[in-house]
Amino acid sequence: MIPSDLSVSDADRQRLLTFCQQYKVLHVRYLSAGVAGTDIATRDTAPVTRTHIPRVVTSQIHIDQALLVDFARELRELLGAQISDVFHKVLIHNDSGGDSEIDLSELVRRVITGDGLYLSELSRNWNSPVDRVAFFAIYLARPFRKAVADEVPATWELGYCPTCGLWPRMAHIDSKTGIRRLWCAGCETVWPFARLVCPFCLETEQKKLGYLKIASNDQYRLYTCDTCRRYLKTKIDDSSLNGSEIDFETEYLLTTSLDLTASFENYIQDFIGFAAFDLQDNAAAQRYLAKAKNNVFS
Amino acid sequence: MKTNRRQFLAGAGAGLVSSVALFGLTPQANASPAMKLKTSKATETTTICPFCGVGCGQIVSVADGKLINLEGDPEHPINEGALCSKGAAVSQLHNNPRRLQKVLYRAPKSDKWEEKTWDWAVENIAARVKKTRDASFRRDLDGKIVNRTEEIACLGGAALDNEECYLLTKAMRSLGIVYLEHQARI
Question: Terminus-to-terminus CA distance in chain A, angstroms?
């Protein structure tokens, strides 16, 4: 149970919880119906742990266009009903004609390759805040990302998601074992990561790392890096006592005060639409990997 | 004008996604400073447990100069995050009003402890070791070369690990000390 002082109002909290529950049902239904699939034959067989290229980049993803349009409409209705009626207006303009004005396949392909600039163009066209557009896009693309999220490499030592290349949005530290796991909002992949390394810039100098301790609650921390000024919301608890896996999505969405607190302390998060491993900005990815060779690779 | 990735990140304020953006709560807009939670900045530092020679790794959290959390280091190859009951209670060594933090010296036949500096302690220990060694050093015994002193002994501590024991033994043998013992109990 997330404490109310970390979250939004009770009404908004309930709407978000309802959204999370209903989205899971919707997402599983369309994934099992075949809205997304991967072509195993054309998949790059080089192990992701050797290339460090997220699996989504090297996979051929099939998109069932008819199912995708249905999925987008249902997602729009869900977001419109539970989150904001803004979503009713911006997603599929030409509803009466049966076809969307937006090429949804193109949107999905742009999103899963981390083309955040495309989302910013859409936000201008839709006259809607880019964060809301990104929110829709992330949930629209999730079945397609999950289609390639078949397994997490056992030795993944990097800060971005091995499946889709996004930066982690939430973390969990098991208070019994001390192991930290990072969670990707794009595909729900969870992977272990070193405790005293910044996942965003691989800083290892302990004086530059740390966390903001929440005075009112011992179960949450904001892990920060003073080199890149990024933060990571982190839940601390004993997994063996809970008996069930932590619900990262609910934790992430409902701990709003943590995000605000981080921003007041001048820590930021990258725009969720950008992939960490961006083929169009390959130099940044190569610099990151070069640093990984010095700092984290065992 | 077409925006590139860097320009987008620099000007958008689009880093605040999550539910904050959904509800229109942005620091630039209508978020109230009252919504900021009270926090304190803590740093995490790796260290080694001082209790025994196993050398378990620990992560120590310090905020405002005070130790606020201590746990096993999950990445340490020896203990992989686990700690024994004494190791888990190491914070009591730090947060303890009875902890000695300065050198105390009691002179021979004195009934009082005197506060001394570390420099004073090291210099006096070195001087006394040299004095005793010089006075008692034997180069030979029964016609055989021995190069030793029998009037100094060394007792290693239980908290010393392999490498520290190695260095201590080397240092003592270089002085000619032959009575070497350890205290292996935890």
Answer: 37
Q: How far is A28 from chain B (nearest CA, A)?
A: 22
Asked whether the predicted pLDDT for residue A242 surpasses 90, the reply is: no
Judge contact between B73 and B57, C-beta under 8 A: yes
Residue A252: how many CB atoms within 10 A of its CB? 22
DSSP E strands, chain A: 36-38, 61-63, 170-174, 180-183, 190-193, 209-214, 220-225, 231-237
Residue B44 near residue A210, CB atoms below 8 Å: yes
Q: What angle do CA A28, A31, A34 make, to 5 degrees?
A: 150
pLDDT beneath 50: ranges in chain B: 12-14, 16, 26-30
Rounded to whole angstroms, the Cα distance separating B85 from B79 reads 13
Contacts of B20 in chain A (CB under 8 A): 256, 259-260
* Nearest residue, CB atoms, B63 vs list A207, A213, A256: A213
The helix/strand/coil state of A86 is: helix
Please report residues of B whose CB lies closer than 8 A to that of A175: 71
Q: Which residue, among B7, B19, B28, would best test binding to A if mutated, counting the most A CBs under 10 Å from its CB?
A: B19
pLDDT of the residue at A98: 45
B3 in reach of chain A (CB within 8 A): yes
Which has the higher per-residue pLDDT, A87 or A17? A17
pLDDT at A264: 87
The radius of gyration of chain A's CA atoms, rounded to the nearest angstrom, is 19
**DSSP 8-class letter at A167:** P
Per-chain mean pLDDT for chain A: 83
CA dist list (Å): B161 to A152, B71, B81, B154 = 37, 20, 19, 16
For residue B171, the SS3 value is helix
Contact across the interface for A135 and B22, Cβ inside 8 Å: yes
DSSP string, A266-286: T-B---TTS-SS-GGGHHHHH
Per residue in A282-296, pLDDT (tens digit) is: 788 888 888 888 887
